[in-house]
Amino acid sequence: MLKGKNILLGVTGGIAAYKAADICSRLVKNHANVDVIMTENALNFITPNTFEGLCHNKVTTDTFDRNHPFEVEHIALADKADCVIIAPATANIIGKLANGIADDMLSTTLLACECPKLIAPAMNTHMWNNPIVQDNIEKLKRYGFIIIDPESGHLACGYNGSGKLAKPEVIVDWIINTCAHEKDMKGLKVVVSAGPTCEDLDPVRFLTNRSTGKMGYSIASAAASRGADVTLVSGPVELPAPAGVEVVNIRSAADMFREITSRQDRTDIIIKAAAVADYRPVTVADNKIKKKDDGSDLSLPLERTDDILKFLGDHKKAGQFLCGFSMETENMVENSRKKLEKKNLDLIAANNVKVEGAGFRGDTNVLTLISRNSETELPLMSKWDAAHRLLDEIMRLR
Ligand code: CTP
What we know:
Bound molecules: cytidine-5'-triphosphate
Number of domains: 2
CATH superfamily of the largest domain: CoaB-like
Strand content: 15-25%
Strand order of the largest sheet: 12-11-8-13-16-17-19-20
C-alpha cells in the first residue's frame, strides 16, 4: 500500500520508543522506504541498529554528523518525505514544534517539511493532561499537524490513564490514510455499516450472526484514505476503530436503523455491509429465562426487524448513492439482482459464503458487483483490495 512512498519516522526519548521498531517494520512490509531520525534521548531507549536492520537505511541523529552523505542532510530528508510520523512524540518535541524551535536533527527537519505531518504522543497522564501540553497540541492542529491521540491504559510509569502510544497498527493505518491514495473522494460524506447486530433475549442471551465486521471496516478505512468524511455505524466487533473515521457503536437492528436513517439526508454515499438480523425476540425478558422443570421444549416468538436498506432506498434523495451487500448460498446473482430492484439500490456487492475465501471469516473476499446495467466478478482478494475495487465502482457509477 505504500509502494514508492518515502516515510520519515521520528523517534523521541520515551519508553514507547521500542514500539517505533514495530511501526518501522510494518511500514517496510507495506513496501515504504523508511528513513529514521532519532533524538539524542531516544538513543537511551533503543539503538539505531534496530531501525537500520529493519529499514536498511542509515539512521540519522546528529545534524552535524560528517559521516553522512549529502542526501541525508536535513533539508534533503524533508524534501524527500511523502509523510512524517513522530512516534513516540514526547512533550518536549511537541513543545518545540509548536513554538518553532529547531535545535536538533528531528526538529530542524520537521520545520523544513511540507508534506503531511503526524504526531503520536506518548507520556505520563499528568504530562499529557497538562494545559501547556494541550495548548501546544491545539497549536499543532491549527498548523495542520495530525495528532494520533494516545490511548488510555496502564502506563509504564505505573499510572492508569491516557498517554499510552496508539497501537502500531493504528499508527500505520493513519500513515496509509494520509499518503497512500489519491483523494478522489474528498468532500463526500459516506456512511458505512459493519458487523453483526445482537438481538437480546434476556440479560445473558442474544441472537446474532458470524459477521466479523472486517469487510465494512475495510470499506470505511479505504474511503477515509481516499479523503471521504466517513461515519461507520458498527455492531459489536473486535476491531480497532479505523484511522480518521467516526465510529458509532450500536447493538441491535433498531439502533442501527436509528443511527443510519437519522444521517441519510446529509450523506452522499451509504454502503451497508452490516449483517443485520431479520428477526428479533418479540419480548426481551428482564430476568434470565429459566429452564422449564417439566423438561418441555421452548419456542421463541420472533418478529421482523425493519429492513434498513429498503427504507433508505424508499427515501433515497437525489444524487444519493446506495450500495448494499448480499450474502447468499445459492442463486447468488439472481437473488442479489432481486434485492437491488426491491431495495432501489445503485449497486449490490454479492458474495457466496460457500465459496472458498469469501464471506465472514478471514481477510479475503470474492465479490460480484452488480448494478442495473453491469456485473463485475472480482477474483479472490484481500478485503482491503475488495473495498477499493468497490469504491472504484461506486465512483465510476456516480
Ligand atoms: N439489510 C438491512 N436491514 C435488514 C436486513 C438486511 O439493511 N433488516 C441489508 C444488509 O445490510 C445488506 C442487504 O440488506 O446490505 C442484504 O442483506 P441480506 O441478509 O443478504 O439479505 P436480506 O435482504 O436480509 O434477505 P435474505 O436474508 O432473505 O437473503
